[in-house]
Design a protein that fits this description.
heterodimer; A: alpha+beta; five-stranded mixed β-sheet; 2 helices; 18% helix; globular; B: 198 residues; alpha+beta; 6 helices
Chain lengths: 160, 198
């Protein structure tokens, strides 16, 4: 029996196969999904902003940099090997466009960039990403197979 | 951001008067009775905001109006897609069905609803506090409620540990449901409370 474990906003969870991790309503936020396909463990973080900027008192799961570090160490604690870790990411949309105004701060793009950089820094391959656009995403991550199901309201559903 | 009971009561009163005006404007516009809950004042972490707006991936039409002036902030209306469609039909006086995700006429009608409601809210707030406030051009997104909310809260690329907002539930007869939230920016809260002598 597999359980579906809910990951909230600015939240981070790890689990073993056959469990599924899910997070609902990603807008400009990013869902980072990392797993080890051999020992079949993995985790998901729902980050909101690129960097904690040294703000160590806050919730580490809120930021790309601090969440990545915590997510990886939690997955390793479940028996994963760092060299086998694989990542998939989704989210980073821009939900509003204001007519006549250039999008000065595309927070979704900045989040996607920051997450990609962090994965590089830790040497974890980014297998595939589904980022950008102007629509929300709900994702389900199978930590055993690494399948990432991305559901949208008006832009279909796919498994990547 | 911690607030005292006195500040909370004052903000609830601001919400009561402002949202009352907004609900009356909606009622006049739609020619329907619109009821309003007693506003709640929340000062909660972002993680907890989800519990206030309900299902994060439920399809909603969200009208977002930035509040400009001496005490800037954000005003946001959440309407479930079915409620938004009923509102548009009432406005157009037509039972014809349409796709809110694509229909530009329907979308601009909803933006106008947001504009009128926020203007009413701000007029009341300005009268009450003496602080001049104006609505900006409304923006609309029809998508997952949580996805839209995070985009609004994170728009400036930063986030306080606590989010403070005034939250009012709206319900109309028949079958209209909605939620109005007003988020004063950090400095605005002190100005609004200061204007009320608190």
């Amino acid at each position: 029996m597999s359980n579906v474990i809910n990951v909230g906003m600015a939240d981070l969870k790890t689990t073993k196969a056959p469990n599924i991790l899910m997070t609902a309503g990603l807008g400009s936020c990013i869902g980072i999904c990392i797993h080890d396909p051999i020992v079949k463990v993995g985790g998901m973080a729902h980050i909101m902003l690129p960097s904690a900027n040294g703000n160590n008192g806050g919730n580490p799961a809120k930021y790309a940099d601090s969440a990545m570090e915590l997510l990886i160490s939690d997955i390793l604690r479940l028996g994963a090997q760092k060299s086998r870790l694989r990542a998939k990411i989704a989210g980073g949309a821009q939900m509003f466009s204001f007519p006549g105004k250039p999008p000065v701060l595309k927070i979704g793009d900045r989040n996607a960039e920051a997450v990609t950089e962090e994965l590089k820094r830790f040497g974890i391959p980014l297998v595939i990403s589904d980022v950008g656009g102007s629509f929300g995403r709900t994702i389900h991550f199978d930590v055993g197979t690494g399948d990432l199901k991305v559901r949208t309201i008006n832009h279909g559903e796919k498994v990547i | 951001m911690e607030i005292t009971q006195l500040q909370r009561d004052a903000l609830r009163e601001i919400g009561n008067i402002g949202s009352g005006h907004a609900a009356t404007a909606l009622s006049t516009l739609l020619q329907r009775r619109i009821d309003m809950s007693v506003p709640e004042v929340w000062a909660i972490s972002f993680e907890e905001v989800a519990s206030v707006i309900g299902q994060l991936d439920s399809p909603q039409a969200v009208i977002y109006v930035k509040v400009e002036g001496d005490a800037p902030g954000k005003a946001v209306f959440f309407f479930p897609v079915e409620s938004a469609e009923i509102m548009v039909q009432a406005l157009f006086g037509s039972k014809e069905s349409f796709n809110l995700f694509e229909d530009e006429m329907a979308q601009s009608a909803l933006k106008e609803v947001g504009n009128i409601m926020v203007s009413s809210f701000l007029i009341a707030l300005t009268q009450f506090s003496g602080i001049p406030l104006q609505p900006s051009v409304p923006a609309l997104a029809v998508d997952m409620a949580g996805a839209i909310l995070d985009a609004i809260l994170l728009e400036d690329g930063s986030l306080e540990d606590k989010v403070l907002f005034i939250d009012t539930q709206l319900s109309g007869i028949p079958q209209i449901e909605g939620q109005f939230i007003f988020l004063p920016n950090d400095g605005s809260l002190r100005k609004l409370l200061g204007a009320l002598g608190i």
